[in-house]
Amino acid sequence: MFTVEATFIVAIAGDILTRDSLDWLFSDPKFVKASSIIGRLLNDIRSHKLEQKRGHVVSAVECYMKEHCATEEVAVIELTKHVNDAWADVNEGLLHPIATVPRPLLLLILNFLRVTDVIYKREDGYTHGGVVLKDYITSLLVEHVPI
Fold first, then answer.
1. Is the pLDDT of residue 57 over 60?
2. What is the tally of structural domains in the chain?
C-alpha cells in the first residue's frame, strides 16, 4: 500500500534510498504506519469542526463518535491517545532501527512528523497557515535569539 507520506518520502529522499530501504518503506512497517496515523489523526482532530461546517467528508472524530456513541470531547481524548501511542511506535523505531534502513531516512520521516505536529499542535495550521505559522516562521528565520 502506498501512503501519501511514503510517496512524499520517496520523492525527496534521493540518494539515501536503497533497494532494501524501499522494500522496507513499502512493506507498510510499524514506523511508517505510525507516521500515517499521527498525520491523519492530528489533521482530523484539529480540522473536524471547520470541515463539518463546510460539509466535507467524515473525519476520524465523527467516526469515533458514531462508532462508540461518544461525545466530541471524548472522541478527541481517545484519538489523542492513539496519536500518543503512534509517537511511541515512532520512538521505538528510532531507538531500535532496522539495519537495512539508513538512519537519514528515519530522520527524514521524523522531521516530516515534527512539522506535522507543529502545524496541528493547537489548531489547523494547514488551512490557516498564514495566520498560525507566521509567528513560527518569523521567530525561526527573522528574529534573533538573545544570548
1. yes
2. 1
R_g of the chain computed on alpha carbons? 17
Range of the domain at 98: 15-141
Q: How confident is the model at residue 138 (pLDDT cuts 50, 70, 90)?
A: confident
Instruction: Please count the residues of the chain.
Output: 147
Asked if residue 134 belongs to a domain, the reply is: yes
Q: Does this model's pTM top 0.90?
A: no
Is 50:127 a contact under the CB 8 Å cutoff? yes
Would you say residue 94 lies in a domain? yes
Higher pLDDT, 57 or 37: 37
